[in-house]
Write a structure and sequence with these properties.
- The structure holds two protein chains of two kinds.
- Helices cover 44% and strands 17% of the residues of chain A.
- Chain A has eleven helices and eight strands.
- In chain A, strand 3 and strand 4 form a beta hairpin.
- Chain A starts with a strand and ends in a 16-residue tail after the last helix.
- By secondary structure, chain B is α+β, with helices and mostly antiparallel strands.
- In chain B, helix 3 packs antiparallel against helix 5.
- In chain B, the strands form two sheets. A five-stranded antiparallel beta sheet of chain B has the order 3-2-6-5-4. A two-stranded parallel ribbon of chain B has the order 1-7.
- The N and C termini of chain B lie far apart (60 Å).
- Chain B is built from five helices and seven strands, in the order H-H-E-H-E-E-H-E-E-E-E-H.
- Chain B folds into two domains: 33 residues, no CATH class; 112 residues, Dynein light chain 2a, cytoplasmic (Beta-Lactamase, 2-Layer Sandwich), CATH 3.30.450.
- Classes of the chains: A alpha/beta, B alpha+beta.
- At the A-B interface, helix 5, helix 6, helix 8 and helix 9 of A face helix 1 and helix 5 of B.
């Protein structure tokens, strides 16, 4: 099993959108996939139509001992499950936040999930402390979205330093890659941000896939579905996540070569 | 030439950032030797100039923290915790105490370490009030060069801590493990 934290210092770069849509693509490509909502604001739950069960979730597993079977939310795709955050009281919010920073609960959860899933995506809140730090301590690798705008670019070094710091503690995520989000080559500044990323960072750091700025993300968000389920014939932008999933498969060794991976005869 | 949008910050990380793609390396330590885990007599005399502390690195054979079932009594859980910590931190001195200095589990060669731990636990509570991101973990060095690491958690009995005495500074990540395992043992996250 591979666990991937989606992290960024800056909020609003598309972490939850990427977590959800990437998970959808991983599942479509045959991986048993789980999305864990590790954001106390419950971003995943707020992104989906019908919301999530009000109680339990990750917080129920941690505090009430609810079993995994009772908190995993199955989806239309048999290979895709979600683990919502659940609800917490305001009084418990700070305690939970401190607890999430330790990463111990997440590590236990991932260990319990190891036999059930091939890929676990961990969606985190914006920022580098608290839950993000815990996620970096507990997961195998991390994906860092960078919005194609100056402020997001300027926060990237701090994010990478944080990852390095966690690794220096003897554990923590390997950098799966930096992915550009909301990219638009027709915008001068956005294009310059991407150019600087590609020229200043080693080529194996920045992923080839660029997630474009696209009105369909807003439509999918409004409808509360992954962009791949926006309509029967999904818009082209939905295919971007197939590409991102394929790129990560190669980088993380999820793409196993073997008998099943021989060329498939077109003529049957 | 156009100005850098990242104000040059990105160029400054390009030299080391590719290291983040490689698995952590060079962190394994050899198995602890007899000298490294026992005998106060073999300790070198205190020196006026204290050399930098060595950091305990991750060992590939480091045991996984124990899992506790709901059926287990708390004494059994704490015994498992102590046994695990002794092996994980290569020390014979691991104990669990509360704010009153009651030795709840484990073993110490010098009971002043337990008393000191209880004393340290109290201001830790106040520290949280003024420093919201305080982790509940701290390490103090003793004059003989050993390190007492404390990791505090809340429990139904008030705050309790696991104390670990080692010859080397323990990496904070490992103290996080000890802290969360103690929390599980106390039944706080069952």
């Amino acid at each position: 099993m591979q666990s991937i934290a989606v992290v960024s210092q800056k909020g609003g770069v598309g972490k939850t959108t990427i977590s959800l849509n990437l998970a959808y693509s991983f599942a479509r490509r045959g991986h048993r996939t789980l999305v864990v909502d590790y954001d106390l604001q419950g971003g995943i739950g707020l992104s989906l139509r019908g919301g999530m069960p009000a109680e339990d979730g990750l917080l129920g597993w941690i505090y009430q001992g609810t079993t995994l079977d009772n908190i995993l939310v199955s989806t239309r795709l048999p290979n895709l499950s979600l683990l919502p955050m659940g609800h917490t009281s305001v009084e418990r919010y700070q305690e939970s936040s401190q607890r999430f920073a330790l990463g111990g609960d997440l590590r236990r959860l991932l260990s319990e999930c190891a036999s059930r899933f091939d890929v676990v995506l961990v969606d985190t809140p914006g920022g580098l402390v608290g839950a993000t730090q815990g996620a970096l301590l507990a997961t195998d690798s991390c994906l860092v979205p960078v919005q194609a705008e100056p402020l997001s670019l300027r926060t990237l070094p701090r994010t990478l330093e944080m990852i390095a710091s966690v690794r220096r503690q003897g554990a923590g995520s390997t950098l799966a890659g930096v992915v550009v989000s909301m990219g638009n080559v027709t915008e001068e500044i956005g294009a310059a941000v991407m150019q600087e990323l590609w020229t200043e960072l080693p080529s194996d750091i920045v992923l080839d896939t660029v997630i474009p700025k696209d009105k369909n993300f807003l439509a999918a968000s409004a409808a509360g579905v992954p962009v791949g389920l926006l309509r029967k014939r999904p818009p082209p932008v939905a295919l971007i996540f197939e590409r991102l999933a394929a790129e990560l498969e190669l980088r993380l060794g999820l793409h196993e070569e073997g008998e099943d991976d021989e060329p498939i005869n077109l003529l049957g | 030439m156009s100005q850098s949008i990242s104000w040059g910050n990105l160029a400054s990380v390009s030299g080391w950032v590719s290291e983040l793609r490689k698995p952590p390396g060079g962190r394994a330590i050899s198995a602890p030797t007899q000298e490294s885990v026992v005998s106060f007599d073999s300790m070198p005399p205190a020196s006026d100039t204290v050399p930098p502390k060595k950091i305990t690195r991750v060992s590939p054979t480091r045991p996984e923290p124990p899992r506790f079932s709901a059926e287990m009594r708390i004494e059994e859980r704490l015994e498992l915790l102590v046994t695990w910590a002794e092996e994980a931190f290569s020390t014979r001195e691991v104990f669990v105490t509360d704010e009153s200095g009651l030795l709840i589990a484990g073993l110490v060669l010098d009971t002043t370490h337990v008393a000191a731990s209880a004393l340290l636990l109290r201001p830790m509570a106040q520290l949280v009030d003024i420093m919201s991101d305080f982790t509940g973990r701290m390490s103090v060095s003793t004059r003989d060069g050993r390190i007492l690491s404390l990791s505090r958690v809340p429990s139904q009995f008030g705050f309790v801590a696991i104390g670990i005495i080692t010859n080397e500074v323990v990496e904070d990540h490992h103290l996080v493990d000890a802290q969360s395992t103690l929390e599980s043992a106390m039944g706080e996250n069952q």
